[in-house]
């Protein structure tokens, strides 16, 4: 895949510096890109890949000649997503000299912002990008909120029961935002059994930390229900530099669509 559009060769950054930036970005993104752990991922198909085939057509109202019908193929354009950040040139030079404490706070924040965008689009939708999220598409009424996390397994079991009743097989996964994930991790049920283990047994699949998720989402992991298509996978590119800083960005292109709306159910946030 050609990476010329990222203009990395124009940046005043050594090979070691680029390796540092790529490694830091990967570390932060792997943790935060919760949606990718639960939906079908296709790609990367390259920077020039621009649309997802929806496999549908629409009839055209008119044609240039008589006795002819015409239908137009429907597509979902991929969306380019970019989050900018900067790194001090002095910090990069110090790294090349052997410093082990390079300040990449701005990169870490950019990685979180782009992960939030992706997770929110997948789970809650992004109308401006033509993306309908999993919770928007689901026909099931959200499972009511619980005050006591000791009741959380019952809530998840109810969600699984609804999916099973709809003919949706497992295993199932659970996506939750940071606060709920921490509560699940830290809660011990009566009798000393960890809540995290109990919920995983009910699901038969993972509990995923997914910043941006409101409440929670239980969804089938059987495959074919939720389709994430990636053109350019997340990459670090060069924008410009001045005497103090190098200005860079994280970038990706993607689309998302729900093939089976009944294969997921929301756990209400309120």
UniProtKB/TrEMBL annotation:
<dbReference type="InterPro" id="IPR051429">
    <property type="entry name" value="Encapsulin_nc"/>
</dbReference>
<comment type="similarity">
    <text>Belongs to the encapsulin family. Family 1 subfamily.</text>
</comment>
<keyword id="KW-1284">Encapsulin nanocompartment</keyword>
<dbReference type="InterPro" id="IPR007544">
    <property type="entry name" value="ENCAP"/>
</dbReference>
<protein>
    <recommendedName>
        <fullName>Type 1 encapsulin shell protein</fullName>
    </recommendedName>
</protein>
<dbReference type="Pfam" id="PF04454">
    <property type="entry name" value="Linocin_M18"/>
</dbReference>
């Amino acid at each position: 895949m050609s990476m010329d559009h990222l203009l990395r060769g124009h940046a005043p950054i050594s090979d070691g510096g680029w390796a540092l930036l790529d490694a830091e970005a990967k570390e932060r993104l792997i943790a935060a890109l919760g949606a990718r752990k639960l939906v079908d991922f296709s790609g990367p198909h390259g920077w020039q890949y621009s649309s997802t085939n929806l496999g549908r057509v629409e009839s055209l109202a008119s044609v240039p000649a008589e006795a002819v019908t015409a239908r137009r193929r429907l597509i979902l354009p991929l969306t380019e997503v970019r989050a900018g950040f900067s790194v001090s040139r002095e910090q990069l030079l110090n790294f090349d000299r052997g410093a082990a404490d390079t300040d990449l706070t701005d990169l870490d924040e950019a990685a979180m912002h782009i992960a939030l965008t992706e997770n929110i689009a997948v789970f809650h939708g992004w109308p401006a990008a033509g993306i309908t999220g999993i919770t928007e598409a689901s026909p099931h009424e959200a499972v009511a909120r619980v005050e006591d996390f000791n009741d959380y397994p019952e809530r998840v079991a109810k969600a699984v029961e609804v999916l099973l009743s709809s003919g949706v097989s497992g295993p199932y996964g659970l996506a939750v935002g940071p606060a709920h994930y921490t509560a699940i991790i830290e809660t011990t049920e009566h009798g000393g059994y960890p809540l995290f283990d109990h919920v995983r047994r009910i699901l038969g699949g993972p509990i995923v930390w997914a910043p941006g998720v409101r409440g929670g989402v239980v969804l089938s992991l059987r495959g074919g229900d939720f389709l994430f298509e990636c053109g350019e996978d997340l990459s670090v590119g060069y924008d410009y530099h001045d005497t103090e800083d190098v200005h860079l960005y994280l970038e990706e292109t993607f689309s998302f669509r729900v093939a089976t709306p009944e294969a997921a159910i929301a756990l209400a946030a309120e």
